[in-house]
Amino acid sequence: MAELVIARNPDPASSLGFLLWLPVGDGLLFRTSGTWPRTKALYCHPAAVDEWPAEGDLEVVERVALRSCARRGAAIDVVLDRARENRSQIVYTRGRGRDMVFWQSPRTRKQARPQVRVPTARAGPDEVEIVVDAHERYPYRFASQQTRVVRRALPAGDYGVVLGDTLVASVERKSLPDLVSSLGSGRLRFALGELAALPRAAVVVEDRWSQVFAQRQLRPAQVADSLAELQVRWPGVPIVFAETRPLAEEWTYRYLAAALAWAKDEQAIGARLAGASPELPPVPAPEPSTAEVRAWARAQGIAVPDRGRLRPEVWDRYREAHAGADGEPAGSTPE
Known about the structure:
Blueprint (H helix, E strand, L loop, with lengths): L2 E6 L9 E5 L5 E5 L9 E6 L12 E13 L2 E6 L6 E9 L2 E7 L23 E6 L13 E6 L6 E5 L2 E9 L1 H10 L1 H9 L4 E6 L14 H14 L5 E3 L3 H25 L20 H10 L12 H10 L14
Parallel strand pairs: 9-10, 12-13, 13-14
Antiparallel strand pairs: 1-2, 1-5, 2-3, 3-4, 4-8, 5-6, 6-7, 7-8, 9-11, 11-12
């Protein structure tokens, strides 16, 4: 059984009198000043695993079985198998211009914040590029938010954000009639399966939950039971009822902006937490649309038709102009 182990630091000169060991990957070891973050977040200094004392020098202070120990973004969530003082986080953040690690509990979490920007008026200081699926009819405009909207074919969902070459989050938009119809036909089940392959995904419904029981397409109890079953099967893809279309648009913007900030944090600490938890295979970023390549070609003075497919040499020139840092093409010619 996986355990959290706290031992006394055998180094008498250290101001951090305890060693904290977690079974993450090949093991994570920290020097810290206490056995639990009761009144304040405890600073943790990362140490090499081979600094763990030999059996003869080991003085274990506490050994507790773990219910869960998993990395989520810039933190490791730790749940102990005991009734009290059982939830805590190891948080990777930055302070005073350097990387820092804190051990915090729910009581002390406000004193050590991870690298996630919580949106207030705007979802962070930077403009967010939101990819709108090319097949989305009457899409959100995000006119009142700090965004740049591009239209491309998405592998899943209607709105997404990209980091590097990876689609890191997507949101599927549903009106209530569409939600009920897709439940009855089984399309929603397959859509959630595709969304679950992404690092972050959600479904937003432009209506109230109470309206499920007022619709007449399917028996209300059948709809409610089906939604509950889908949430149990895919707990990582929440279905959110946002009451109105404007509220659904606002929720989509903030969700995608937060997911992009979270993905940047995960990327920043990925090397430090190598092997902390299994990752889903990356989903490639959506390819550019024919309209996007056509507009680029015209801006370069390349003659292209107003409609239809583009010549392979036009795609070759686009890929060459937009090749990544490793020299690989940015996309491939659609079949």
